[in-house]
Amino acid sequence: VKKKASNYEKQAQPVKQTAVLGAGIMGGGIAYQSASKGTPILMKDIKDDAIELGLKEARKLFAKQVERKKLTTEQMAEKLTNIRPTLSYGDFGNVDLVVEAVVENPKVKDAVLTEVEGMVGENTILTSNTSTISINRLAQNLKRPENFCGMHFFNPVHRMPLVEVIRGEKTSDAAVGATVAYARAMGKTPIVVNDCPGFLVNRVLFPYFGGFSFLVEQGADFQHVDKVMEKFGWPMGPAYLLDVVGLDTAVHANEVMAEGFPDRMAREGKTAIQVMYDNERLGQKNDKGFYAYE
Ligand code: NAD
């Protein structure tokens, strides 16, 4: 972390209209958080049912605020109009900042980022919510890499205060500034970090998941490990956290980390996490992971 996040904001253009690509666990959460704090956001996906899921999640979170008497039903209805679901790039011309939150696959992200760059204005800031993929790597195919940086939220978005703003080699101060300002407008605490696979938090978290997986492969009971880690003081154990993150996302992110740091992160054979993924136990997103959900 070189400069304080706040130093960048002086160079930032105002962020009034935003968009998120992907209405999944993270995209839905980002849309809710932005809408809740008053910045309008387009939520684009390629599937109707994904959009429905994203909206359902946002409605559920707003309804909880109403239950807790933090919002009236009228305020909830008004805030919900800040989320505009779409399957097309029709209204992207006026967007100041885009958060890409599609699947953790470099090829898919390359295609989506190139596509959206052609749909937005020259000054629009593009950001990626990638968990692990290097920002320099994703910037390679972009025409305006200076307008691109990482904006890494944590799951669940409405609860987790931190946002990593990742500066690539070509990222301008203005792009970092706009992203920092948007994170702050969303009520988050941004930190500016340098680029590498996994950035800062996941360079700590993924070795921890690896250690947990190895314990399970050696016969440890995952529920027992979770209970022990809760007693240790973590809000949830690793198995439950993996279910929240999504086993597919964890596997794809770990592949990127293993490619970036082969001596530390690459493993021979299948890990327990990989076996879960192979058996389509993806976690809370499909109601079965280490635990079963209804
Ligand atoms: P997810 O599988 O829940 O959602 C991904 C969504 O992207 C799906 O709705 C899918 O239909 C959509 N999508 C796929 N291709 C698309 C395209 N071309 N255009 C628009 N939408 C498209 O995944 P997620 O957990 O929300 O993860 C999204 C990103 O956020 C990944 O890069 C992931 O690494 C990152 N992330 C995830 C977590 C986490 O805990 N799950 C935390 C931080 C960051």
UniProtKB/TrEMBL annotation:
Family of the protein in this entry: In the N-terminal section; belongs to the enoyl-CoA hydratase/isomerase family. Belongs to the enoyl-CoA hydratase/isomerase family.
Ranges for domain 3-hydroxyacyl-CoA dehydrogenase C-terminal: 198-293
Coiled-coil regions listed: none
Source organism, top-level taxon: Bacteria
UniProt name for this protein: enoyl-CoA hydratase
Boundaries of the shown chain within the full protein: 304 to 597 of 728
Source organism per UniProt: Vreelandella neptunia
Start and end residues of each 3-hydroxyacyl-CoA dehydrogenase NAD binding domain: 18-196
